[in-house]
Amino acid sequence: MSCPALRSVFLVLFLVFSSASAFALLNPHVKPEPCESCHMKTPTKADGEAGNYFLLKDTIDDTCHVCHEATCCKPGSLHGSNHPSNIKDWDWKLFRRPKTLPLYNGYITCSTCHTHSIPAPPSYKMVRIVKVDGKKIDWTELCRDCHVGY
Ligand code: HEC
Ligand code: HEC
Ligand code: HEC
Ligand code: HEC
After folding, report:
1. DSSP conformation letters of 14-59
2. Which of 59, 34, 37, 36 is nearest to 111 (CA)?
3. This prediction's pTM
4. What are the pLDDT digits (tens) for 1-45?
5. Atom 9 of ligand 1 has which residue's CA nearest to it?
6. Which residue's alpha carbon is nearest to atom 10 within ligand 4?
7. How many A from CA of 144 to the centre of ligand 2?
8. How far does residue 67's CA lie from ligand 2's centre (Å)?
9. Which ligand 3 atom is the nearest neighbour of the CA of 85?
10. Closest Cα to residue 68, out of 132, 135, 57?
């Protein structure tokens, strides 16, 4: 291998490690949230109502995956094996359209079940409509919002 090639390998390794540690230090869900962790440009309230979020990626899920593909969504992990996201078609006899949870353009996304900043306590992993009672976590109501007969 020639020298410049070696140097670029080290440069790549350096960038990988330095960006990994930047993620470890920065939790974008803690106030004051760094808006640019997820938005190219901060939407106004009116933009939001029109569905224009100016996210870093094309979809909400892809934006969350920038940091969370490994922690939540790889096959075998909780969501990979357990829960579909970024879908808009399903068996309507088994899964109804949620009454409380938001869909985005008809899609179930990460934001359907999670808020994107840590809400006022009690909260559990930023999950919506979850009941926290001491150590007991109850998300029956969340699942029931869509699953018939849950
Ligand atoms: C962790 C990622 C993330 C961060 C950090 C973030 N947002 Fe968002 N934001 C989203 C996503 C995803 C949506 C799309 C809909 C939703 O989840 O509510 C959104 C939607 C919005 C909307 C439109 C819908 C609404 O809720 O009114 C506004 C306005 C907004 N963000 C402003 C901000 C501002 C201001 C900041 C910084 C203080 C910020 N966001 C930080 C991910 C983020
Ligand atoms: C810039 C990187 C980044 C982006 C983008 C990002 N997150 Fe996170 N997220 C983190 C970090 C860092 C933590 C805290 C450490 C951890 O639990 O992995 C975290 C934690 C979480 C947690 C666990 C909270 C807890 O109490 O255990 C959830 C749920 C979560 N994020 C959901 C989302 C969702 C939904 C989106 C997209 C709207 C998103 N994240 C986008 C970096 C990110
Ligand atoms: C159908 C609802 C639902 C959807 C959709 C959903 N989540 Fe979750 N998520 C949950 C629940 C419930 C938990 C808590 C599970 C637990 O603690 O066992 C959770 C936990 C998490 C955690 C914490 C994992 C841990 O081990 O601490 C992260 C990170 C996360 N979700 C990110 C995401 C991202 C990113 C998406 C979109 C790709 C997403 N979630 C979509 C319901 C959902
Ligand atoms: C926003 C609506 C929604 C919510 C909330 C929701 N689900 Fe689902 N869930 C679905 C849909 C739709 C499918 C089927 C997707 C498909 O067939 O492609 C599904 C599929 C599943 C599956 C895969 C096996 C099956 O029955 O097809 C499991 C397991 C599951 N959900 C568990 C849960 C649990 C546990 C909760 C509560 C923490 C929950 N879901 C909350 C909509 C939801």
Report:
1. HHHHHHHHHHHH--TTSSSP-GGGTBSSPPPHHHHHTT---BSSSS
2. 59
3. 0.89
4. 344 443 444 434 333 344 444 444 578 999 888 999 999 999 999
5. 53
6. 95
7. 24
8. 7
9. 5
10. 57
